[in-house]
Amino acid sequence: MKGSELMVKCLRSEGVRHIFGIPGEENLDLMDSLIDSDIEFVLTRHESSAAFMAGMVGRLTHRPGACLTTLGPGASNMVIGVAEAFLGYSPMVAMSGQVGVECQHHPRKQYIDLPSMFRPITRESISIRSASRIPELTRRAFDTASRERPGPVFLELPEDVLREQVEGAPLPIQGPEATVLPDLNQVRELIASAERPLILAGAGVVRGNASGALEQFAECWRIPVAMSWMGAGTMPYDNALSLNTVGLRRADIVREAFEEADLIILVGFDLIEFEPQHWNVGREKGIVYLGASPCDVVQGLHLDVEIVGDLRGMLDALSRRPVRRAEWASSIRQRLHDDLAAPPAEGEGVKPQHIIRAIRDALGPEDIAISDVGAHLIWMAQRYPVYRENTMLVSNGLIPMGVGVPWAIAAKLTYPERKVVASVGDGSFAMTAMELETARRLGTPFVTVVWNDARFGLIEIRQERAFGRSTGVEFGEMDVVKFARSLGVDGYRATSATELREIMTRCLRDDVLAVIDV
C-alpha cells in the first residue's frame, strides 16, 4: 500500500473522526486515501479556521483534533490556530503536505522549512522522511499531543513519502500508567489551620475529568471556589460555594475574596491564565498547588506546597476526614449573584448585560456558549453564569480574533445534541464569517450573535485612556444580515433586548443556522 493509505489507517487508529483543512497538490495522495476511509474531511474556507476547529475538538474530547494543509502558504495560514492550541493547552496534530525529500532546498517556490517554523509553537515538530516510519511517528505525535499539559504537534508529510510503497500497521495505544498517590498530609494540615481558604480552579480540572471530585472536595471542607475563564463550570454556578469566574486584573466582582483569603489552593491551575500578581493580593497568604504537572515558574510566586499527581485521585483523598468550617465568603457570593441577576433597564439600543442575559436564558446548563475575542469577551467571561465545564468556551492564551464561528462548528460536530451560541464582535466576525458557508454545508446549526459597533471598541477605549484620542479603530459598517443571507444562512437584526430574546429563542427552537446583528 501507499504511505498515504498507511497514514490514514494510523489516523483512524488514533480515533480521528474529522480532519479539517484545505487540499493542495502536495497532499493529493492523502486526500485520495481518505475517500476510502470513514474519516470525514471537512473543507474549510481558510487554514486558520481548520486549525481553530481541530484545537476545539481536542479541547472538548481530550483527544487530539486533526487538521491538514498543503505546503508554504497553506501551512503558514495554519500557524495562528496552532499557536492558539499551544498557549491554550489543546491537544492537536497539525499536518501539512510538502515537496519531496530530495526537493527540499532553497531557493524553491513555496518551500519553507516547516518543522523549523512550527517548532516554537508546538510540543514537537516532526518531518516523516520515510513511509516505514509513519506508524511510529504518528503514534508519537498523538501521544505527545495528549500528555499533560497537552498541545499541538506538527507533522510534515513530503509528497514522495505519501506515494511510497510500504508494509505496516498502526501501533497500539498504550493504556495510562499506574499512578501512586502522593502524601497529602501537609496539604491537609495547611487547610485545617487556615481561617479563610479559597480554591482557584483552572483548566487542568477539565483536562483531568476532575470536576466532580473538585465539587466534593470543596463541599466536604466548605471552601469557596473561584475559577479561571477556561476552568469555568468546574464548580456549578448554583452551588453555594461557587464564586464563578475570575480573570480581570482589578475589576473581578469577587476580588474581595482573594484579598481576605489566608490560603489559596490552586487546583489544576495554569498560571498563563491569570498571573499571580492579580490574585495574590490583600492579606499575607499561603499558596498550595495541586496539579497533574508541575506548576509554571513565575517570578515572585512562592509555593508553600506543590503536589503533582493524579488530580482526581488527590481531590478524592483530600475529601476524606475534612475539617468543616463556616461559609466565610457567602456575602461576597450573594453580591455576585445580585449583580449578575440585575441587568440595567431597557432603553435605546442593546446593552452588553442584555445580550449576556439573553444568551444565558436561551441555553440550558449543558448547552454551549462560545465567545470570540474583543471587548465582548470580557463581558462574557465575567458575567455569564456557568453550570458545567466546557459550556463557556473562551481563549485565554494566545487570544486571537476570529475563533467564534470555527469553534461553534467544532462544538456542534462534537455535541450535535446541544444548542450552541457564538458571541462575536463585528471585527472578529469579519475575519472568519466565511466559515458560515462551511457550517451550512455541514448541516451544523447554531446561532451567531454579532456585537456591532463598527469599530475595535476595546482598543479605542485603551487609546482614549492613554492619550485622550484614538486612531485606526473605526471601519465601515457591514450589512451582517445581507451577508448571512447571501450564504444561505438566516439573518436578523435586533434593536432591543426584547427583540433579541425573541429572535434567539425562535432560532434555537427551530434548530437553524442563524446570525443576529445586534
Radius of gyration: 24 Å
Write down the overall geometry: globular
Span between termini: 54 Å
How is the main sheet built? 6 strands, parallel
Total number of helices? 22
Could you characterize the architecture of this molecule?
This protein has 518 residues and is of the alpha/beta class. Helix content is 40%, strand content 16%. The protein contains 22 helices and 18 strands. It has helices at 3-13, 28-35, 47-61, 73-88, 114-118, 134-146, 159-163, 185-193, 203-207, 211-221, 255-260, 276-279, 311-318, 330-340, 352-362, 375-383, 404-414, 426-432, 435-442, 457-467, 480-486, 497-510, and strands spanning 18-21, 40-43, 65-69, 92-98, 124-127, 152-158, 197-201, 225-227, 242-245, 263-267, 286-291, 305-308, 368-371, 392-393, 420-425, 447-451, 490-493, 514-517. The strands form three sheets. The chain has a six-stranded parallel beta sheet with strand order 2-1-3-4-6-5, sandwiched between helices. α22 (497-510) links the parallel β17 and β18. α3 (47-61) packs across α17 and α15 runs parallel beside α22 (497-510). The longest helix is centred in the N-terminal third of the chain and has 16 residues, at 73-88. The chain is globular. The mean pLDDT is 95.
Secondary-structure map with pairings?
Elements: H1 3-13, E1 18-21, H2 28-35, E2 40-43, H3 47-61, E3 65-69, H4 73-88, E4 92-98, H5 114-118, E5 124-127, H6 134-146, E6 152-158, H7 159-163, H8 185-193, E7 197-201, H9 203-207, H10 211-221, E8 225-227, E9 242-245, H11 255-260, E10 263-267, H12 276-279, E11 286-291, E12 305-308, H13 311-318, H14 330-340, H15 352-362, E13 368-371, H16 375-383, E14 392-393, H17 404-414, E15 420-425, H18 426-432, H19 435-442, E16 447-451, H20 457-467, H21 480-486, E17 490-493, H22 497-510, E18 514-517
Parallel strand pairs: 1-2, 1-3, 3-4, 4-6, 5-6, 7-8, 7-10, 8-9, 10-11, 11-12, 13-14, 13-15, 15-16, 16-18, 17-18
Helix pairs in contact: 1-2, 1-6, 3-4, 3-17, 10-13, 15-22
